[in-house]
Amino acid sequence: MGPNISVEGKQTESNSFWYLLTVCCPLIFERYAIVLHPFWISCDLKKSPNLEQPKNAHNKSFERISWPDFFTMYSYPFDLQSANRNMELIRKRIIETGWPEDIRYPNEGNCESCELEYILEHIKDIYGDIFINLYYCQLKTQNWEKEIIYQAHLTEFNLLPSEKEVLDNPTAIYSDDKSWCIVSDYDLPFTYIGGSKTLIDRITKNSPFDIYPIEPTFKAKNV
User: Fold this and answer.
1) How distant is the alpha carbon of residue 32 from its chain centre?
2) Are residues 113 and 211 in the same domain?
3) Which of 13, 15, 21, 126 would bridge 85 by S-S if both were Cys, CB 3.0 to 4.6 A apart?
């Protein structure tokens, strides 16, 4: 969490996003944002007015759905403070009749490529085609034997899927000068971004994705 920094208070349902940011992301940046990984729902279920599972479960096609839209489907409000609690309430409601084949919860530990490409494009606009580090934890490697770090230019990000040593998208992406970072913890359905006010404003304002500014709660240690 960085030098002379400690978490203020304990994790609760209402501050989970803020608390976990202090655990996953270095607290060295001017501003922070959270990327909520999308839900996935079958096209047939999305068209159903009463959210009943279609009788024909074959040949489904899925499409992404945002957290606010998913919550609205189940008549729950969406905001960052209540999102964790309400998502759990929705999950309990869904599994009362057994988990349907038509709904998939957000991908844990892996930010979708569309969101990453959107963020990296804004980073490129600000900093240029800089050299970046792409870190993969052991669980994102083929052999689960060791962590891997690739170095490449920002515009080479799309070439990484061809690498046979890794799975999915990176656990973390960051620059050598520590001006920004993108971090996806392996069991969380969201990703954190730290950077300048300019960067966070650009990726959160009018974003086509679930990307929101977020303020961590922390204080200086008494040293």
Assistant:
1) 13
2) yes
3) 13
